Amino acid sequence: xxxxxxEISQLPHPYILNESETLKIFWLGPITMHxxxxxxxxxxxxxxxxxxxxxxVVFVFGEIDVRCHIxxxxxxxxxxxxxxxxxxxxxxxxxINCNRNLFDDLICVVCSVVPPIDGSERANPDxxxxxxxxxxxxxxxxxxxxxxxxxxxxxxxxxxxxxxxxDTLGALNPIxxxxxxxxxxxxxxxxKTKLLELxxxxxxxxx
Length: 207
Fold this sequence. Notes:
alpha/beta
């Protein structure tokens, strides 16, 4: 889970990013969307992390929730998937709004959850895969739909990267994957391009 802070005034034109000048990555470790929503500003206070007025902040959470928890909550707690995901997104959205309210001018971007992978060869005992790949594909799509809707309702931007990185089944295309569950950094140029295009389309950037 991580955030990206972008200083719009430094964005070059056309769509080229020099990370050392324009991006600051806040890697928070293996943190769930659930925790961000549950603990709110007590856990995630971006102002205390150096985010400033007029920055763009990209919120990237949810992969662990799908990999480990949503299906388990459904099966072991007998909860409806719709209720689980709706509550997850609602609480997550509240925390993002609490952070935005700390500023007069902040652009919040919610990133879609990366497509899931087949966990048979990449098991992590601390964060074990739960459920079949097809089930996690379905859960990821449902979560992304809810995130997109919540972003629209709360005046966040929604950065949809899933369609580019998934295969025909909806799983993470192994061509783009690193040795675990992430998109290999060598293939993250698409994310940067789509983010800048999103900002340009919303008139947040003047070249």
